[in-house]
């Protein structure tokens, strides 16, 4: 019986099986009859059905005859994947009054129909609007925060400049990582990109908007075109999608707040795009049915063949995203097999069966095939959804031949064969288990080992006495009493311990003496052995045991080989040439990290031209590998797993093919691929960014010029009494003040050796510093802190810069307090005047001294941070250590001896974060409002802003593990019972913790550093380093 497509039924009946699958996933109820009745009673309203099924006191509806597997309304055969959660305003249906239920259903349908008639917007689309508006609202709210942020966007535009042809990222404008993941996946489909970029609004666009739905589509397409154009040709590292998101938000009005669901957004996005292209297609049609490129690209068809109560049926349905259950399956093919077969499929091949079931067969696959992995299920006990973290593997190339309608006969044969093999496999595995777990008690052992133990026992040297008698004899011989042996249960029991006098030596408590009382007598056999066994008995027994053991080994090996052979046969069942003709290549994987009600999304997208995987994580776009994708996407490891898979037809090369110039045949890249209007738009944006770069360069040039002018002022005017120390003063003359004592000592040493050798003091000082630079000091001594020249020598600074630095030290007017020093000063000043301007690059000279000041600042940050850490003042220590790490990283980028041990700073920075996270979690667990708020302040203002620093370097595995530990600690609360206000605060906070991009932001104000002389700095540095060596840290 083929059901005709013009049969008029309720809309929900068109996709009843889809709705049933979703109800099963959301509620966790597997009884098909209960689900059908709920869906019927709610007239197909999924939210009411969920509310009915999950109501605390809801009764199981009585089974009524259901109309099953019917077709659609005329002209509407779209398969819709509904992913929206139940509305929070659903009427309470937990009572027994059926009239209330009917009124609620009628009211819901009436409101839904009225809203659609007035606005052209469905309930589902209105639900989408709530999260979009929430995203924008959160972004705006973040700009109005009164508390100071640890981080802010880098004022340096070069930090936001695109490097070469690196892909452009998308800024997260407030819980919009889902938007970035989906848009980047679609943008990197070149055919989709071309469709969007070359979309021309209809000529009569001004007259078009007939309702709010149509009024939304064209402005959204305009902003999407602009966004795609910027992703193609922008000179920025990342671009802001706020205008596109604003359009989506403005299309709907709601006050609800939650983070959007990727599959739900993808479905609605394709709907909006399809509507926009449909308007254009209808305008351009020439008497024929218009073709919609979105439908051609993303929608396919399948044939549902089924039996209901012995009656066969067939109907064709259209699908976009294809939903797949994850729970209970190990790989994608198992998910697909389960999705394509419902119920007892044997009934399809029998004439007189009353069983029900159906099969799905693809009749037409879309060029872009998207699988929605259902990783969430409703926990009825807790009354909330939970994420499924099970591991699910999927291949880079997926062959879909076995699911095609044209191959259904051969597929059925192979499925029957696989079923038979699996049944046989189960029998073999049960037999093998009996060999590997032998015995009838709670403890079981491999049979081959049991036989081996029996053989070893039989072959042991026989003994003629019992082990108890042997111990008694040994005890008597050594002068001690043997332990009392409890009477047998068959003998008359003796007097109780209470009847025996306490003075009895037999009842004296045993004193355990190590290495004396427990020592094994030398003549006691180490293993049990038979008392009596003849040579003939032993020979027969050994022969039997050897033979049995060999037989068992052979049987076990044969079973294992048979099982492996069957597994291999099943794996290769669909590998013949006829079943590998429909290859689909994995294009994108959308990953979700977190729990059901909070998390972060990113995407792995395959670069088909560079043949490599790329990771798109908001503004961060980095090279990746299949191994990293497996780790983050398969699940079963951490809280991250794939949520959506996008495959493309591997034979349809136009999907990923570059454009060519029709005249020259050259490949079009970058701006050349854009239409003229978008090219102008991107050029204007690039001009604005270039102007920003020019203004930054001009500001730096002005600062440099001012420093040059200051350096040309006579030194007598620049050196004032009470000047700040080296760390506070950018002038290079400060180095002389710190080293005045060293200079005087060098002069005195030279004069002591010979009265007229005062000028040799400069040479002696250089010799001393060179020796320090060449020594290998202990960890607590860093000679670079003693003098800039030690730092310069170790980092191979030009000789002229070292010479000028040394001469400026002795040419400083601070030394002119007696005749000897004045003579040395005059010599140094004379030599300075002899240095020609072209011999020393003053800009390079200034850079070296700036780097040295930077090095001392970094040392101070590190030292103060470690001092706070040892005092357990982790909040204070964290900021100092973060600045120390960032400054040190910048120094080490110029050379290995420019900074300090990076691993040391990284360790204590990480420890600070972990300890603060534990403290914040403890405050949250207390339940006290004030302490909970304090804990969340620590997380929001200290921990969350610092996480990008730990994630930016993916080679630092310890940092990545630390971030996962911190996130997992807070995610673990999702499965616990807590007060509603705590649950609300946790739900609000978790997206911030999980939605953490790897953008490195600039600091607002570094912490204030104290001023120390060189001697004080070296002394405090040595003290803190010595204390660290006495207290080894974990992981160091």
From TrEMBL:
The keyword Cell membrane does not apply. It is an enzyme of class 3 (hydrolase). Its main location: cytoplasm. One of its GO terms (molecular function) is SUMO binding. Residues 475-494 have a biased composition (Polar residues). Gene3D superfamilies: Cysteine proteinases, DNA helicase RuvA subunit, C-terminal domain. It catalyses: Thiol-dependent hydrolysis of ester, thioester, amide, peptide and isopeptide bonds formed by the C-terminal Gly of ubiquitin (a 76-residue protein attached to proteins as an intracellular targeting signal). Residues 495-506 have a biased composition (Low complexity). PROSITE patterns: UIM, USP_1, USP_2, USP_3. Keywords: Coiled coil, Cytoplasm, Hydrolase, Isopeptide bond, Nucleus, Phosphoprotein, Protease, Repeat, Thiol protease, Ubl conjugation, Ubl conjugation pathway. It is found in: Cytoplasm; Nucleus. The keyword 4Fe-4S does not apply. It holds the Pfam family UBA_8. GO terms for biological process: protein deubiquitination; proteolysis. InterPro entries: Papain-like_cys_pep_sf (IPR038765), Peptidase_C19 (IPR050164), Peptidase_C19_UCH (IPR001394), UBA-like_sf (IPR009060), UBA_8 (IPR054109), UIM_dom (IPR003903), USP (IPR028889), USP25/28_UIM (IPR054108). Its EC number is 3.4.19.12. Homotetramer, inhibited form. Homodimer, active form. Interacts with ACTA1 (via its C-terminus); the interaction occurs for all isoforms but is strongest for isoform USP25m in muscle differentiating cells. Interacts (isoform USP25m only) with MYBPC1; the interaction prevents proteasomal degradation of MYBPC1. Interacts (isoform USP25m only) with FLNC (via filament repeats 17-18, 20-21 and 24). Interacts with GAPDH. Interacts with SUMO3; the interaction sumoylates efficiently USP25. Interacts with SUMO2; the interaction sumoylates efficiently USP25. This is Ubiquitin carboxyl-terminal hydrolase 25. It comes from Cyanistes caeruleus (Eurasian blue tit). The lineage of its organism: Eukaryota, Metazoa, Chordata, Craniata, Vertebrata.
């Amino acid at each position: 019986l083929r059901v005709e497509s013009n049969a008029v039924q309720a809309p929900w009946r068109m996709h009843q099986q889809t709705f049933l699958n979703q109800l099963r996933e959301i509620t966790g109820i597997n009884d098909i009859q209960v689900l059908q009745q709920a869906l019927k009673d709610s007239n197909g309203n999924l939210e009411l059905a969920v509310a009915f099924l999950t109501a605390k006191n809801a009764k199981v509806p009585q089974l009524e005859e259901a109309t099953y597997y019917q077709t659609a309304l005329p002209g509407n055969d779209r398969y819709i994947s509904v992913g929206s959660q139940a509305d929070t305003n659903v009427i309470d249906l937990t009572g027994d009054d059926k009239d209330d239920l009917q009124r609620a259903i009628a009211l819901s349908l009436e409101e839904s129909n009225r809203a659609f008639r007035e606005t052209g917007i469905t309930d589902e689309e209105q639900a989408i609007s709530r999260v979009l508006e929430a995203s924008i609202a959160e972004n705006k709210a973040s700009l109005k925060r009164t508390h100071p942020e640890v981080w802010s966007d880098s004022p340096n535009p070069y930090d936001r400049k695109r490097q070469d042809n690196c892909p452009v990222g998308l800024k997260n404008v407030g819980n919009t990582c889902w938007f970035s993941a989906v848009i980047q996946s679609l943008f990197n489909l070149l055919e989709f990109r071309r469709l969007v970029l070359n979309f021309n609004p209809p000529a009569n666009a001004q007259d078009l908007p007939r309702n709010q739905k149509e009024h939304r589509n064209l402005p959204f397409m305009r902003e999407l075109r602009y966004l795609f154009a910027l992703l193609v040709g922008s000179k920025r590292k990342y671009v802001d999608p706020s205008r596109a998101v604003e359009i989506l938000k403005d299309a709907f009005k709601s006050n609800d707040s939650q983070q959007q669901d990727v599959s739900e957004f993808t479905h609605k996005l394709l709907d909006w795009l399809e509507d926009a292209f449909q308007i254009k297609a209808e305008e351009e049609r020439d008497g024929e049915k218009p073709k919609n490129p979105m439908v051609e690209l993303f929608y396919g068809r399948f044939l549902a063949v089924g039996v209901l109560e012995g009656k066969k049926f067939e109907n064709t349905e259209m699908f976009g995203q294809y939903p797949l259950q994850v729970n209970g399956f190990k790989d994608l093919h198992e998910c697909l097999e389960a999705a394509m077969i419902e119920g007892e499929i044997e009934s399809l091949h029998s004439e007189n069966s009353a069983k029900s079931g159906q099969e799905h067969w693809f009749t037409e696959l879309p060029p872009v095939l998207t699988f929605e992995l259902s990783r969430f299920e409703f926990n009825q006990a807790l009354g909330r959804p939970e994420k499924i973290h099970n591991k699910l593997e999927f291949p880079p190339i997926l062959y879909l031949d076995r699911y095609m309608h044209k191959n259904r006969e051969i597929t059925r044969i192979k499925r029957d064969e696989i079923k038979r093999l699996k049944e046989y496999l189960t029998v073999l595995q049960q037999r093998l288990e009996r060999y590997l777990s032998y015995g009838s008690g709670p403890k079981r052992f491999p049979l081959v080992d049991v036989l081996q133990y029996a053989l070893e026992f039989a072959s042991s040297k026989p003994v003629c006495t019992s082990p108890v008698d042997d111990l008694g004899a040994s005890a008597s011989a050594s002068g001690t009493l043997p332990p009392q042996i409890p009477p047998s249960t068959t003998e008359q029991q003796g007097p109780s311990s209470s009847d025996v006098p306490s003075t009895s030596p037999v009842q004296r408590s045993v004193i355990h003496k190590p290495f004396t009382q427990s020592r094994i007598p030398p003549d006691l056999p180490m293993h049990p052995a038979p008392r009596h066994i003849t040579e003939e008995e032993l020979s027969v027994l050994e022969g039997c045991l050897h033979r049995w053991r060999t037989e068992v080994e052979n049987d076990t090996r044969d079973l294992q080989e048979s099982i492996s052979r069957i597994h291999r046969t099943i794996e290769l069942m669909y590998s013949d040439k006829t079943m590998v003709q429909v290859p689909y290549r994995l294009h994108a994987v959308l990953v979700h990290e977190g729990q059901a009600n909070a998390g972060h999304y990113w995407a792995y997208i395959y670069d088909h031209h560079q043949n490599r995987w790329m990771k798109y994580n908001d503004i961060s776009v980095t090279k990746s590998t299949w191994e990293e994708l497996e780790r983050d996407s398969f699940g079963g490891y951490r809280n991250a797993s794939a949520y959506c898979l996008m495959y493309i037809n591997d034979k349809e090369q136009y999907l990923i093919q570059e454009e060519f110039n029709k005249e020259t045949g050259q490949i079009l890249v970058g701006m050349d691929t854009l239409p003229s209007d978008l090219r102008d738009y991107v050029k204007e944006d690039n001009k604005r960014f270039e102007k920003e770069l020019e203004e930054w360069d001009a500001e730096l040039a002005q600062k440099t010029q001012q420093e040059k002018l200051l350096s040309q002022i006579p030194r007598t005017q620049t050196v004032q009494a009470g000047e700040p120390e080296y760390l506070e003063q950018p002038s290079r003359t400060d180095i002389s003040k710190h080293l005045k004592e060293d200079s005087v000592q060098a002069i005195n040493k030279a004069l002591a050796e010979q009265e007229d050798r005062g000028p040799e003091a400069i040479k002696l000082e250089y010799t001393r510093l060179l020796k320090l630079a060449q020594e290998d000091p202990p960890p607590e001594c860093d000679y670079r802190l003693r003098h800039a020249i030690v730092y310069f020598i170790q980092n191979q600074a030009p000789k002229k810069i070292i010479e000028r630095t040394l001469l400026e030290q002795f040419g400083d007017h601070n030394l002119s307090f007696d005749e000897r020093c004045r003579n040395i000063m005059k010599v140094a000043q004379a030599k300075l005047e002899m240095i020609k301007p072209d011999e020393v690059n003053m800009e390079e000279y200034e850079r070296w001294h700036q780097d040295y000041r930077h090095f001392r600042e970094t040392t101070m940050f590190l030292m103060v941070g470690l001092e706070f850490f040892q005092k357990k003042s982790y909040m204070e220590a964290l900021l100092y250590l973060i600045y120390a790490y960032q400054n040190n990283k910048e120094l080490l980028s110029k050379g290995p001896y420019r900074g300090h041990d990076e691993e040391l700073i990284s360790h204590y920075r990480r420890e600070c974060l972990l300890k603060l996270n534990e403290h914040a979690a403890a405050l949250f667990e207390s339940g006290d409002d004030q302490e909970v708020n304090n804990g969340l302040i620590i997380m929001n203002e200290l921990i969350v802003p610092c996480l990008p620093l730990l994630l930016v370097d993916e080679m630092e595995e310890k940092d990545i593990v630390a971030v996962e530990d911190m996130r997992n600690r807070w995610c673990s609360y999702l499965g616990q019972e807590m007060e509603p206000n705590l649950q609300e605060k946790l739900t609000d906070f978790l997206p911030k913790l999980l939605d953490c991009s790897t953008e490195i932001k600039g600091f607002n104000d570094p912490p204030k550093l104290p001023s120390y002389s060189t001697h004080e700095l070296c002394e405090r540095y040595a003290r803190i380093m010595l204390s660290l060596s006495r207290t080894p840290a974990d992981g160091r």
